[in-house]
Amino acid sequence: MKIPPERLRALGYATGFTLITYSSIPLFLMWGESLWMRLASLILIFFAIYLLAIIFYGKPIRSESYSPYRESLVHLLALMSIATMLVMIPFLIFNGIKIDPQEIYLTAKPGFVETWNIYIPLYAILYWGIGGALVAYFYHSVTFELFKIGGRWAGILATTSLFALNYNLPLISHYWNWWDIISYGFLFAYSYSLKRNPMALMTVYLLYEVPLWWCILAPFGGFALIIYFLGRTLISLIALTIFLWNSLRRYYTKISRNI
Q1: Mean pLDDT across the stretch 190-200?
Q2: What is the dihedral of CA 194, 199, 201, 203, to 10 degrees?
Q3: Once rounded to an integer, what is the mean pLDDT over residues 133-144?
Q4: Alpha carbon distance, N-terminus to C-terminus of the chain
Q5: pLDDT for position 213
Q6: What angle do CA 146, 149, 201 make, to 5 degrees?
Q7: φ, ψ for residue 129 (rounded to 5)?
Q8: C-alpha pair distances (Å), 130 with each of 66, 134, 162
Q9: pTM over 0.70
Q10: 77: Cβ contacts below 8 Å, ≥ 6 apart
């Protein structure tokens, strides 16, 4: 049976993507703990996947979007808020509310940063900015657009699978971060399938990446990170409120038109 060219392009992109990410392991091992060499490795990966996307997809960073940025951002933040509550409420019920600024400070610290320096915030913005673009455009946008030939849910499942197999390199590291897979993987894919705005994905990724905010807020201590978490929660809850209000308004508008 002949495989349609569209499916071959999709499979070729997913295969090439996985080969590029796992072949980058020697770079990280060779350059050791150097932060700038780690950033250089990520830039090389970015451009390699960018070229791969051009080959199999065409223009990987498109300017047009199906939904406005604000609408897409509210939608994804609402989903993240619901997911966070589903995880945190049972945790708080069984473990209680324990706020230890020092523990939060140490937990948020990225493993590859030994000590904070004045250049760390700039480094973090560059490093996670590139990482956010990878997640938004190459893990999600390009993958979904290639695999949607099999239907919307085929695109969602393919995108989530690609993310799960490559983010954190779990087949080698054995580190399966299920929160990342559910949030940055499935919820991002689901939201993109409806709104098709990768900039919204990138924004939420940067907002939720705790190590990025440690690099920016570390000089101010654990209390600054507590304020960050509270601010992030407030933003997400406001987005959820806006999303529910708009959904109810559309529902009642539809009902009124049918009366």
Answers
A1: 95
A2: -140
A3: 96
A4: 51
A5: 97
A6: 45
A7: -65, -45
A8: 23, 6, 18
A9: yes
A10: 204, 235, 236, 239, 240, 243
The letter for the amino acid at 208 is: Y
Question: Average pLDDT for residues 63-72, to the nearest whole number?
Answer: 81
In this structure, the number of other CB atoms found within 10 A of the CB of residue 73 comes to 23
Closest C-alpha among 117, 131, 108, 176 to residue 39: 131
Q: How far apart are CA 152 and CA 224, in angstroms?
A: 41
**Cα 167–Cα 127–Cα 33 angle in degrees, nearest 5:** 85
Contacts of 117 (CB under 8 A, 6+ apart): none
What would the DSSP string read from start to end of the chain?
Answer: -PPPHHHHHHHHHHHHHHHHHHHTHHHHHHHTT-HHHHHHHHHHHHHHHHHHHHHHTS-SS-S--SS-HHHHHHHHHHHHHHHHHHHHHHHHHHH-----HHHHHHHHS-TT--S--TTHHHHHHHHHHHHHHIIIIIIIIHHHHHHGGG-HHHHHHHHHHHHHHHTT-HHHH----HHHIIIIIIIHHHHHHHH--HHHHHHHHHHH-HHHHHHHHGGG-HHHHHHHHHHHHHHHHHHHHHHHHHHHHHHHHHHHHH-
Q: Which residue has the tokens 């990025």?
A: 212
